[in-house]
Amino acid sequence: MTIKQDTRIHRTTMFKVPDAENQRKLMEAYQTLSKTQVKGDQPYILYVCAGLAADEPLSKGYTVVAHTMFKNVEDMRYFDNECAAHAAVKKTAASLGMTEPPLAVYFEGQPALSK
Q1: Against a cut of 0.85, is the pTM above it?
Q2: How many separate domains does the chain show?
Q3: Which residues face 64 on adjacent strands?
Q4: What is the dihedral angle through the alpha carbons of 48, 66, 80, 103, rounded to the nearest 10 degrees?
């Protein structure tokens, strides 16, 4: 994948966590991730946000959604394979009674805002 200078890697991860208390725990784990993520000695995730999915038919049973943004694919791969803060989120998620594994997708995109 060739990445242009001003593009970012946007990743969305969706979870099916049926219990409201466990949903809260997962969102808290993402809050902790946002404060503790480092690569070397520097924060490397450009953006982290997690919240409850709207209770709508389009949600298809997904209850918690997380969005992360990275400078490049290498940083996202570090997130998946080496980041201790993300490992803690994965451990928390695995303990919350998910009805199936999370769904994660990512894309390369250049933010465009209209004025």
Answers
A1: yes
A2: 1
A3: 15, 52
A4: -160
